[in-house]
Each structure stands twice: as structure tokens, then as C-alpha cells.
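Let us work through a complete example step by step.
Step 1: write down the sequence.
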Amino acid sequence: MKQKIFSFTLVLFVIMSVQMFAQNTVGINVQNGMKSVVEITYNTAIATAFPEISQKQPAEWAAYDAMFKKKIAEGAYPPAISTMSAEVIDVQQVPNGIMFVSSAEAGKYKTQCSVVDDTFYLYRQSKPSVAEFGKNISLINFMGVVSYPLTMKTDDELQTVIDQMFFPKASKEWKDKVKVKTKTETTIYSDSDGRPKYAMATDYYKEVLVANKLTVSTVVTTVTSRKCIGEEQITIGDKTYTAKKIAVRIEITPNTTITKDYGSFITGLTAKIIENRAKKSIANIADINTSEGFEWFIPELCSVVKTEMFDIFGNPTWSVKAVSIQ
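Step 2: predict the structure and record it as C-alpha cells.
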């Protein structure tokens, strides 16, 4: 279970990194042959801590956080730093904007953006994406449109972004052997005078197979709230730009629906215990996946060129920044 939680978190990070990478290649005047390089920093301590903390109660989180902060200070978990480069290989004009394809080490990605009424819109998907996890589980991902007013001012609240991931219903059917009473025989015992003294009942059972069915469906909603908190100078290559600094808060909420039909009482009782544990773990994961950070948007480039994110304890989790845009 811990490994699955970690793997799922890592997949989410990769998706977010790819989208950020695509976003950094965006310029409303983007052209074929445009190249960009981004630097990605991922805090390996958070990856190590997440599976363990997600199984603990909130009252225990502070102790774990202190332990990992100490290890980070001692250099036990150096951050993983990598670069990702891309090149625009196709550009098409669409109403009020463009649709382009960028090629990177991991594959090709299609992105659409536009400017309407002095607001830049980034469409992170041309269609919902589907990822396979295991034999019978697939993930459908819907990513919301992100907007950036080109004339935003300090203290402006930006439009909330909502993303949703749907795990289609996964069902499991199986049979259990249970004992079913078939009949009861009563024997009456009498005293020496023939009068009934007491009776004894004997129950007879046989083993039969009963059907059980469990269906699980999950929707994970990510709500990103944003607010402009000021301006900063950002240098990319040999040029300096004025960037809008935006405070970001990301809240991830899973909602799982479980439908069950248990023919066996023991199976149902055991499953209920497991279900309660799972719900508690999911609630913990939701709290841990609440994070805050900052992004820097340059209106001149119609692009977010830097993002820094932190966990609920204030530890840096990951960051992405543009190194060059040519």
C-alpha cells in the first residue's frame, strides 16, 4: 500500500512537471524551432516521508516533520535536480491564439493558448488524458483552463483552477464457503415414569458457496486558488523581465464511493474494518496533499517561468524554473 501511494504521488508530480514544462514554452508569438530549457528540483525527503506520514494520525505528523527536517539539515536527503529541454515542432493558428506541439525527451505534447480581453488562457489539454495503473485500473484526467490577466495588480484574486481525476469503477467478485443450517432435530428425554424431562435440539449444517461483490469508484478533485502578491525581476538568459508573483494554494480532495454485496457475514465484517482504515488513510492523504507555493508570471512572455511549492509543514517539495527560452 505504501509503495502504491508513493508511485501515485510520483506520477502526479511527473504530470505537473510536464505541464509546467509545456507552459514555459508558451509565448503568444511562439514559432517553430523555439527552444526552452527548464530546471526541475524535487525534494527526495518528501518522497520518502509521504508513505510513512500518510499512515499516521495528524497528531503524529509534527514529530515526523521534525525528524525529516533534521535529516535534511544533515544532508541525508539531497534534492534531485534535473533539466528538461523542448523544441516547438508545429504551430497552428486558432481563434484568438495558437495551438502548438512541443517535443521533449519524454514525448510530444500539444498545448493551446489564447489572449482574450487582456487575459491569457492556457488550455493544458486538448482532450482528457488516460493513464493505466495495473491490469484493471485506469485514470482519466481532466485539467482545467488556467487564466492570467495581463494587467493583474497586487492583491488581485485570480480565477480558481479545478482539475479532476476519475478512476472508473473497479469491481471484484468472489465466492466464500459458508455453513448453512439445513435442519434442526429435537430429541425428548423422559423419566422412568415416561414423563418428558428435558429436550435437546441438534442443528445440521452443510457448506455452500455464496457470492460477494465489491465495486469502488474514486474522483480526486484538485482546487488551485491564486492571488497576485507583488512584482519581482526575473532574469532568463541575458534578459531581465518584470514578473508577477502569485501565491498558490493547492487542495486535493479524494472522494471514494464503495458499493458492496456480501453473501458472507464474516467477509462483510472484515471488509468493513478494512474500509474504515482505508477511509482514514485517504483523509490523511488529502490533508498531506494540501500545499502552498508561488509562481512567477511574465506578461511580456505570456508565461509562468518559475514555480516553487511547499508541503503543509513548509518544507520545499518541488520547483520548476526556466533556464532559457530561445
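Step 3: interpret the result. The first strand starts at residue 35 and ends at 42.
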